[in-house]
Specification:
The protein has about 300 residues and is mainly alpha-helical. The protein contains nine helices and four strands.
Amino acid sequence: MGVLKTTFLLAGLTGLLGVFGMVLDRMMGTGGLLTVLFLGVGIVMNWISYFHSDKIVLKMYKAREVSASEEPRLHEMVERLCGLMKLPKPKICIVPTEVPNAFATGRNPEHGVVAVTQGIMRALSADELEGVIAHELGHIRNRDTLISTVAASIAGAVAMLANVGQFGMFFGGGNREGGNPIVLLMMAILAPMLAMVLQMAISRTREYGADRAAVEATGNPDAMANALRRIESFAHSQQLPTAQGTQHMFIINPLTGRGMSQLFSTHPPTEKRIAAIMGLKAQGTTGGSRIRPMPASR
């Protein structure tokens, strides 16, 4: 099912680019050239996202892979959780920032990567850190990492190529036969907004699934809820240097509470996530054997 969803997403967002290209072709009289161009961009970006998205984002945040000898307790925690969640052990990376947060990447469980910041290892208790890592492993197990990365890439491409429509209007594209500058302008505005809405919808629904996976693996909903509260409190007061389009990858949006960012957040409100976690607790939906506590790295 995961492969089917991924294929559908790739095809759908690439098709969105193609439709946008078709409209621009009609407006600017380019005879199908822009349709082919936009579809080509979508295919190339899908290929890059599938095979290289993990390397790109890790380099972007200067994340460094750490060995078991460097971070033995962190590796031990990940190994135990992978055993409970029936996952191959991912690479483990440290992001050199004191702002607490974490993300996962990789095109499938066999190529998974879990990255945590230096700050989160100091800010959270062992149980809370365990919940965060289980959440990120849940994303890897559900193949959310590939889907969200591709969605972000295509959304970025739509926004970038929408500028072509704006330039086309200024250079007289709207004056050609069948052209309408108002329609062209509306497409240039609405296409990137639609792509952004799709990206947010995909990301938001998958956060609940990863939270559930973490609770079922650790059997500790309170620690998971406390971790979300603590990380969000830091997000309100400390800025994580975030490249555009990658905030959806983190367990808590690092732009939380900044201006219009809440309205267009890639994450559901933290209080709703916590309410859902407490609902699992009330239902007794907390599987897995409790993992013994372990001091976090300092």
